[in-house]
Amino acid sequence: MSLTIEVCLTPKLINQHTLEGKIAVVADIFRATSCIVTALSENATAIYPVSTMDECLKLGTQGMLTAGERGGIKIKEFNLGNSPFEYMGKVSGKEVAISTTNGTIALEKSKNAEQVIIGSFLNITATINYLIDQKLPVIIHCAGWKGAPNIEDTLYAGALVHQLIGHDYLAKSDSAKMALDLYRRNKNSLLKIALESDHAKRLKKFGITKDLDFCLQVDKYPNLNGRLMGSKIIKI
Ligand code: MLT
Prior knowledge:
putative 2-phosphosulfolactate phosphatase
């Protein structure tokens, strides 16, 4: 019998899905999960996603680096913002506590899943191979923006659905079919459509443009996966 793949377009809708027994792939393409995958590629030993700034700062008093943003802007008390470039050359051998506007909320709300892994275009093939190997139903949990769906996370979800149905997965739910359609219509111009998103435009207003190109690189890290194990994300 085919394994199912579902898409949850925003954490506001996650209670409409059953997480138990499934692998949740959390996607916040601009930029939290792209940052997490980059941090793991830079040999951060572990990343601790937390929902509040205070929790993050408390972990900072325990020697962790603190990283994150609100509304796309770096939190001034934190060591790092939420650009993948801020992790480069700075986190090797270190633990990082991260808190962001949407991504860490989606991670928190995925915890009842059998497994929680980190999705990004940067490591999409590694993720697909891992999912196929695990042989569990999949739910792609899009972080969206403050409760609303967004283009970039939905596009990523569609890319995953497109690949997995080619391996006998069944796209369950209209949201999976919507995501698949968005991807298929734009698969030869992913950056172009992603730059149409509200958050891309918001970040561009802040002068943040190179992050957008970076986060849409397919398979920059072709063999890397991150998994949430208890309170921390580690390389698997
Ligand atoms: C998010 O949590 O939505 C993103 O991390 C926001 C950002 O990095 O700009």
